Known about the structure:
Layout: H1 17-27, H2 32-55, E1 57-58, H3 65-78, E2 86-89, E3 96-99, E4 105-109, H4 110-115, H5 118-134, H6 136-153, H7 159-189, H8 192-204, H9 213-225, H10 229-238, H11 247-260, H12 262-267, H13 282-299, H14 303-329, H15 348-361
Parallel strand pairs: 2-4
Antiparallel strand pairs: 1-2, 3-4
Amino acid sequence: MSRTELSGLSPRAYEHPADRAALVALRRVPGFDTVVRKLLGSIGDRSLRYAFLASSVRVSEDQFPEIHHSFLEACRVLDVSPVPELYVAQTPIVNAGAVGVDKPFIVINSGTVSLMSPEELQFILGHELGHVISGHVLYKTMLRLLLRMTTLAFAIPLGGAALYAITTALLEWDRKSELSADRAGLLAVQDPELALRVNMKLAGGGRAEQMNIDAFIAQAEEYKDSGNVVDGVVKLLNLIGRTHPFPVLRLAELKKWVDSGDYDTILAGDYPRRDGDEAVSVYSELRASSESYKDDIGVSSDPLVGLVRDLGEGVASGVRNAKDGLRGLFSGGSSSESTEEEPAGEGDDESLDQTGEVGEEA
């Protein structure tokens, strides 16, 4: 399959707005990246690499050559250079990850190799490359350390609550970063059906011939839209502590991105380049993130989201009514009702009373 090489691709092209806004804001903090990178890199980069060098198989032309070819193809398409090291680790758990800070490398579990076809593995490798290009590894490592600190911090009055709030916000970013990486994975394979099938297999295992992608898409829609407000609360609680969105939601979000036309626009060559990353406005990215959440709330059929949306509209309506009332109060007691003329000769006293009442109410 011939794939379009995305030369100079900026991660901003595929990053979810909420992920992109957080990253741009963090990168704008003077010295933040440098300090965190030095701290975390000095602690674990070398030891991590030697641990996998000793216990895993490093992918090359001589070891897992088929995976090596898929990996090089993903790096070519996403314009990743130098090519990170890639390891296969012996464990039945289906997973993969980008590891390290100064010189990230990628580890893919043997359970994932057994489950996925070479093309599907290329999607997963593209997903992990997306994390590397975006610099997610640095912030994900920081998040893992914060999560470990949270347990200790609960012993300090108010300290645990504050740290819990921070880690909750970071976990929300973490889940959005996975949606960004899924988009990078799709760009690496440039086959939407294959990308959706990977998420289906992550949920149901390797018997793909026994599953149906259209039925799984319908399952995702049912999860998103069905139930009542209590069910919506349960769905929200189920996300607590999770670093990854559920497979059905990842599939739905990836399909939504493809349907939006953004995927085709990138393949047509219309995408931001890395040489323009420094000029990006933090304000514009935060606004884009806010608009993204607003759009999601506006179109969501989830009962809990609908309740929140209705409450928000009710509050907005009340604010507008209060503003109108104040405007009438400070405009001399006049209103559109008080300027209406009563029919001459009928109910003069009543009309005066009504006029007076309207004036007082205004």
